[in-house]
Amino acid sequence: MAAKYTPAPRTGDDSKQKPVRLQTFSGANGLDEEAQRHTDDEGDVDGQTANSTQDKPKLETDLRNLFFDDGKRRIDFILAWTIDHKRPETARQARQVFEENLIKEGLELEYDTRGRDVNFVKVHAPFDVLKRYADILKLRMPMKMILAEQHMKEKYSDWEEDDFGLIVTPLPSVGARLWNNTIQLVRKFMVPFHYDETVLPTVSRSYSCPYSSSREYLFEIPENKDEYFSKAIRSWIVDYILRRQSFNVSNSKTFSFGIKKMLSDGFYSAAYPLHEGHWKAGSANNARKVLFDHWANWTNCLKFQPIDYIRFYFGEKIALYFAWLGFYTLMLVPATVVGLAVFFYGLGIMSTNIASKELCDPHNNITMCPLCDARCPYWKLSDACSHAKASRIFDNGATVFFAIFMSLWGTLFLEFWKRKEATIQYKWDLTTFVQEEEPPRPEYLSKLENWQIFKMNPVTGIQEPHLPFWKRRFPIFLASYSIMLFLAAIAVTAVIGVIAYRVSMLAALQLIPQHVSSNSTVVATTAGLIYENASLVTTVTAALINLAIIIILNVIYGHLAFWLTDWECLRTQSEYDNSITIKLFALQFVNYFCSIFYIAFFKGQFVGRPGKYRTIFGGRQEECEAGGCLIELCIQLAIIMVGKQLIQNNFIEIVVPKLIKLVKRKCSKETREQKLAKTPWEKDYILAPAESMSLFYEYLEMVLQFGFLTIFCAAFPLAPLFALLNNIVEIRVDANKFTTHLRRPLAEKSANIGIWYSVLYGISRIAIISNAFIIALTSEFIPRLVYTSRYSPDESLSGYINFTMAYFNTSDFAPSDRPKDIHLGVISMCRYKDFRNPPWEDPEYRRSTAFWHVLAARLAFVVVFENVVVVITSLISWLIPDVPTILKEQIHREAYITNEIVLKTELRRAQGEDLNSLGGAHLSDENLRYSPHHSEDIELKKRSPSTGKSKSGSQIYI
Fold it and tell me: Which segment of 47-61, 168-182, 553-567 scores lowest on mean pLDDT?
């Protein structure tokens, strides 16, 4: 097949085109096809080679065909299509017009049509096309090393560089030196966690400026020009061209253009760049395998990520996600340390706490009022001993400190991330990145294909279908968000159902002593154990049921959220993504946190009193145990958070793909020879597509985890530990997925994490209010504080349990509510947890003075806590600049130096000087590209310019 596409006469079916002979490559080191066949892993759907033992020599069988048949022109993109039997001629004509337009743009095509179900078009972008679009898109490219080096020596020879590659003045301030020394110390402790820099050397940053064809002498263009643009940039430029080409002959349909529209219409079945090679052991070294071995492999779970190399392979958008996830995971380390300290402090005081000792002392002989009407018996307060002790682990003075710490931690995390993000933007040349004007979504155009109302786009000047807001959009939005409210109400209803289960289960467990026969020792012992831990059993089983409901509702919510967003018919992909983000986050937030909010703020607050309980649907409301509701909140939070991570992160993302792969392997009748005969584009085609929403679910998962960490941190100080463990696994799971299970995603550019930062900031603000009320209302911290400061004779907790218990005269029970079980004998007076007057005071059972003291203290604590934390966090936000001062100076300095270089070079050009003498494609080791980091320059000098290898012999893949 010729290198360039020549429209050939086609008759109906694409499968009748002339087949193309495909090159086959034998393995390296003289391996023949038989040797490759024996090294093939039968279980690998990608047909990749593997060695299971480490002592065998690696077989370099992965010489992937990434070029046209001539072996010279690189494949930058693959277009795949299947025969459309419903409208074959329409699909064929659309593809023909589209491919002819690609040829006019300068792209080169080659076909693989061997009469199979799937056919492929290989796309190559010549250097001239890449250069033209780099000029149009103003891509920032590295300048010649010698130009920047000369200018730096002239003006900044006496200046120094810090560890981030930023130039600093010879006399930095005391604060700057202290900060740098601190960073150096931290880095020394982090050395064991760094990845192998002999394989993945530190990437240096050179001065760059927007590419210009008229000033090509400014840029470092190698002798082989195809190597100038990275593979990620090449595929990104090709995708940019594909998104702008028409596929309609008559142009009657204005919006019949773009690869996304063709994919939506079914004219193509897939469009993707190729992976660089195989990833399994035994494959030859390539960028994909190096990333797998030193990033996605589970042996690297405690190592930092090679973010720059992730960017080179997957692009800025995906690399930015992993940079954020890695930074978030690293920030969890101090939170985990503090959370563990708080937890162990609680364990230490669990048995020594005076209040717990009083509650557990059976000699106090405190008889409690029944937990339900008629059927439930009286019970002893000492029966709740284990519950009260467990509650003290999480309900103590350290809880307040931890809540304040986590509020500050959330603010510091967001502020330091902004600084980290600014540094990444500078290093990756994203500081001036502006998102291009988005075209309408293909689904939007398809729905409005016959729409009669048009409006000119003020940016592009194109007449586009227009939906009037009040007549068309507002009714749909109103209906859509009304359905969302109904879906949220379903989650609330599910919580009410779980509450009803808890009430009925607790009442049923209270009847165990009446129905268990003493003849069976095993049954009696088990029943007695359940009876003694009735509250714990009820709480755990209810939380598990709630978790199951949450998982089911999440599946329903996911489908309905997409259906509602599709119904809204949004114009651009950004509008669509933002809308689905709001819907799914809101629905999952309500789904996950509804039951937790109930336990934290409502359970036990409006119960009433014995003889006059408040009822809902004829049943009494739930009461908190004698030890308080905080331990129930902790159990609920732990089960939902950890259960979500185990089921969603570990089972769905790890186990399910392996099961699917196993089933495919068992069902597949493909032989090893057939696997080996497959081309790289066929192997990539059978991988799962890298959907545009892939990162959305990853961000959503982590943002919900951030909500668990911060909103309810006062109840569960171990949450950071579980989050840290989960994220260590999550990074490798996601890395493995992108490296091995998905087609290579398009290397998209993005300067930030988008709307997710605003969501994280909103959660951090909600967390301040939430933790203030948890400490004030749910925990016993405020009542204990009031007792020791106002009512205790010796300012200790001695007598605190009696202080929190009110008296009730059992003769005031209604006959229908009086307990029928009197195994404790005739009880004239029982106790219940509340601050009320005893029956011998007038007015009886009214709120006591202590109640109002405690209430006032609780409200005062909420006000003080919120204002103090808000002021401190706001002060921290103000004191920590979003962009480091040194980085600001570096950005301005680079702009100045770049401008000076251009002016001076233009002057020399005008004077007729030979610009090639300034340094060409081949430079000696002494004329290396300028890097603001000395150590990086040293590492570069260790490499041979011709081979790209370091002295250790490790290949560098960029």
Answer: 47-61
Count Cα neighbours of 509 within 13 Å in the Cβ-side half-sphere: 23
Strands (E), 101-244: 108-112, 118-124, 140-142, 160-161, 167-168, 208-210
Average pLDDT over residues 894-921: 69
Rounded CA gap, 31 and 818, in Å?
89
CA distance 564 to 368: 52
- For 873-904, letters b (16+ CB in 10 Å) and e give beeebeeeeebbebbeebbebbeebbeebbee
Separation of alpha carbons 228 and 131, rounded Å: 10
Cα 941 to the chain's mean position, in Å?
Answer: 38
Q: Which of 593, 557, 568 is nearest to 485 (CA)?
A: 557
Pair of tokens at residue 852: 């109002």
Q: What are phi and psi of 833, to 5 degrees?
A: -85, 105
> Whose CA is closest to 779, among 625, 628, 634, 624?
628
Residue 775 confidence (pLDDT) above 80 = yes
| DSSP symbols for 786-847 | HIIIII-TTSSSTTHHHHTEEEEEGGGS-TTTS-S--TT---SEEEEES-B--TTSSSTTSB
pLDDT tens digits for 266-302?
888 899 999 988 888 777 788 888 999 999 888 888 8
Which tokens in the block code for residue 149? 């080096």
CA 509 to each of CA 359, 372, 524, 533: distance values in angstroms, whole numbers, following the listed order? 22, 11, 13, 9
Locate 30 and state its tokens. 């003289």
Distance, in Å, from the CA atom of 750 to the CA atom of 433, rounded to the nearest integer, reads 8
* 694-711 helix and 316-349 helix, angle to the nearest 10 degrees: 20
Residue with tokens 């990437």: 203
Cα separation, 76 vs 68, in Å, equals: 10
The values of phi and psi at residue 151, to 5°, are -70, -35
**Angle of helix 534-568 relative to helix 474-510, nearest 10 degrees?**
170
The interaxial angle of helices 849-879 and 397-427, nearest 10 deg, is 20
DSSP 8-state assignment for residue 435: P
For residue 843, is the peptide bond before it cis, meaning its omega torsion is within 30 degrees of 0? yes
Contact 332, 720 (CB under 8 A): yes
Could you tell me where the DSSP H helices lie in 306-396? 307-314, 316-349, 354-360, 385-394
The strand pairing partners of 108, in sequence order, are 124
Which residue is associated with the tokens 């690189």? Answer: 74
> Whole-angstrom Cα distance, residue 772 to residue 337?
22
Residue that the structure tokens 């205790």 belong to: 792
pLDDT digits (tens, 9 = 90+) for 216-273: 878 878 888 888 888 888 998 998 888 888 887 665 555 677 888 888 888 888 999 9
Helix (H) or strand (E) holding 231, with range, is: helix 231-242
The whole-number pLDDT of residue 62 equals 42
Reported as type and span, the H/E element at residue 640 is: helix 630-644
pLDDT at 767 over 70: yes
Q: How far is CA 834 from the centre of its chain?
A: 44
| 3-class DSSP state of 693 | coil
| Exposed e or buried b per residue across 743-774, where buried means at least 16 C-beta atoms within 10 angstroms of its C-beta | bbbbbbbbbbbbebeebbeebbeebbebbbbb
Structure tokens at 268: 């193509």
Domain positions in the chain are: 63-145+206-274, 885-913
Burial class (CB in 10 A: 0-12, 13-18, 19+), 922: exposed
Q: Mean pLDDT lowest for which of 9-23, 341-355, 533-547, 722-736?
A: 9-23
